[in-house]
Design goal:
This protein is α/β, with parallel strands linked by helices. Helices cover 44% and strands 21% of the residues. α2 links the parallel β2 and β3. α3 runs parallel beside α5.
Length: 178
């Protein structure tokens, strides 16, 4: 199958290098354009319980300060991510692959699927950390969500930490299969 647009959902985890290499290989083989996407997970709610009192003006000031600190931290993370994504773009261009990047704040699984849909991706390449059982329930599984909700084919690069009998190198599927 030849791909024209490949969305590479990537982070700085241990399998990031394998995700990058698989994406570059797919891009080289098919002459596809790549978009490197990094999503910074925003906490669902600013946790202020231990700091808040009974609804005083000081509580409002504390909440505002904590919220401002959170936004500043997110901005610093975005800037750092944009720097290393630029390195990936240069690596792709060195192989003759057209590449761009996008960095967002939100829920990674939703942002990946939404970006793939909006951009018209033919393939999503992402990693899998190999969480199982309670860890997967608590931490969630971005790769599992994307595999089942993506509007295109998905290449899941297995975590290097998985045992050799479980690891097959990669799993390819379409977003519509279960």
């Amino acid at each position: 199958m030849t791909f024209k647009k490949i969305l590479v959902a990537i982070d700085r985890s241990l399998q990031g290098a394998s995700v990058l290499e698989n994406a570059l290989e797919q891009g080289t083989q098919s002459g596809a354009e790549l978009v490197f996407l990094h999503v910074i997970r925003r906490p669902s709610e600013l946790q202020t319980g231990p700091f808040m009192g009974i609804g005083t003006i000081a509580d409002i000031d504390t909440y505002s300060s904590l919220r401002r600190f959170q936004r500043e931290q997110e901005q610093r993370e975005l800037e750092k991510a944009q720097e290393w994504l630029q390195e990936y773009i240069q690596m792709a261009e060195a192989r003759g692959i057209k590449a761009t990047s996008d960095c967002r704040i939100g829920e990674p699984s939703l942002e990946i699927c939404m970006t793939a849909q909006t951009w018209g991706a033919d393939l999503i390449v992402l990693g899998r950390r190999g969480y199982q059982g309670l860890s997967e329930i608590v931490l969630g599984s971005v790769s599992n969500y994307v595999l089942h909700h993506a509007p295109c084919a998905v290449l899941v690069v297995q975590s290097a930490a998985q045992s050799s009998e479980e690891s097959t190198g990669s799993t390819v599927g379409t977003g519509a299969t279960r």
